[in-house]
Amino acid sequence: MMNITEIKPGIRYVGVNDRTTTRFEGLWSLPYGVSYNSYLVLGEKVALIDTVEEGFGSRFIQNIERELQGRTIDYLVVNHMEPDHSSSVLALRRIYPQMQVIGNAKTLQMLQGYYGIQDRTLEVKEGDSLDLGGLTLQFYFAPMVHWPEVMVSYCPEHKLLFSADAFGTFGTLDGGVTDSQLRLDHYWDEMRRYYACIVGKYGAPVQKALQKLGGLQIETICSTHGPVWQREIGRVIDIYDRLSRYEGERGVVIAYGSMYGNTEQMADEIARCLAAEGVGPIIVHNLSTADPSMVLRDVFKYNTLVVGSPTYNGELFPEVESLLQKLAARCVPQRNFACFGSFTWAGAAVRRFTEFAERMKWCMPCRPVEMKQGYSHEAYGEHCRTLAHEIAEMMNCNK
Ligand code: FEO
């Protein structure tokens, strides 16, 4: 019988699955749960790479003890300080009091700030190595992927990278640990959703890290969330590369708010006309009911965004405004962008969309459709058709 937790000789998976938390970071839904990954490196000395969310501490420690078989932990490498990976550090120090905690200068400052830890630490610098006897760890800094202290640890004997959050996905590890042991279908969109929600602001640092890591031979990627990547490394790096360049696939996201269905009818008519123009895929999100993380995922995934909103208190509909704020916070540099809006007595929605496009330095070549009061095909069908045609032309110009 194969040992599922043995990734390579001396490299063991000791992470946990979380199917209980409903909102990651208190914000993002977890329909497939999430895993907090941690790994043991068993040389003559033993290193543990990262920990898990502290609520799962007791099962984490059981996983460690099962793999250690009476040995102890000499080093804890903290690649990332976000508490989903660091909040079991204090418990581990109580069980393994001789263990040294390894991090860079920023990590050590955060260890003190979060947990009051000041002793039994070891500071590493860019490119430093730790010889465990038989296995080595080399440390490379990857600041802002996704916090400033983030570093990755490379094991040259196995061409294996412990990559912190990079290449991570939502979704628990059901049975298997590596990508060849798991059904992967849902992970690809969960990777995009994880990236868009958690790392989405930091495209430039991710690009820098990808360039730095490009010099390493990598056959296994052990991220802090989701599958261990081996067979699919090429696809995983390609997805991360595209996401961090904010490069969307061809496709349209129509995201709208609507109080009484009139603006929604515009959205549906534009979607129908886009389909008739041969454009696809088309994803339509009602922002009053859509999961914001799924909308963000789709805006990162596709190259064209069409937004619609009623005028509400002289402003955009609040859920529409919230989406625009999330995109601005993630510094999305460009999308094919178009808009439509509505009002009853004084229009503001289309003006606000135009101001947003100017602030973001996005082009908006299509003439917006602005509707007064109720929708009918007679009054507004032709305007929606024209907008859809212009969107299709814009997409053909900016493939
Ligand atoms: Fe999974 Fe940035 O922590």
Core attributes:
35% helix; Metallo-beta-lactamase, Chain A; single chain; Rossmann fold; binds MU-OXO-diiron; 7-stranded mixed sheet
Write the SSE topology.
Layout: E1 6-8, E2 11-13, E3 16-18, E4 23-24, E5 28-29, E6 34-36, E7 39-42, E8 46-49, H1 57-68, E9 75-77, H2 83-86, H3 89-95, E10 100-103, H4 105-115, E11 121-123, E12 129-131, E13 136-141, E14 151-155, E15 160-162, H5 187-199, H6 203-213, E16 220-222, H7 233-244, E17 249-256, H8 262-276, E18 282-286, H9 292-301, E19 302-312, E20 315-316, H10 318-329, E21 336-343, H11 349-360, E22 369-372, H12 377-397
Parallel strand pairs: 8-9, 9-10, 10-11, 15-16, 17-18, 17-19, 19-21, 21-22
Antiparallel strand pairs: 1-2, 2-7, 3-6, 4-5, 7-8, 12-13, 13-14, 14-15, 19-20
The chain binds MU-OXO-diiron.
Briefly characterize the structure.
By secondary structure, this protein is of the alpha/beta class. It has helices at 57-68, 83-86, 89-95, 105-115, 187-199, 203-213, 233-244, 262-276, 292-301, 318-329, 349-360, 377-397, and strands spanning 6-8, 11-13, 16-18, 23-24, 28-29, 34-36, 39-42, 46-49, 75-77, 100-103, 121-123, 129-131, 136-141, 151-155, 160-162, 220-222, 249-256, 282-286, 302-312, 315-316, 336-343, 369-372.
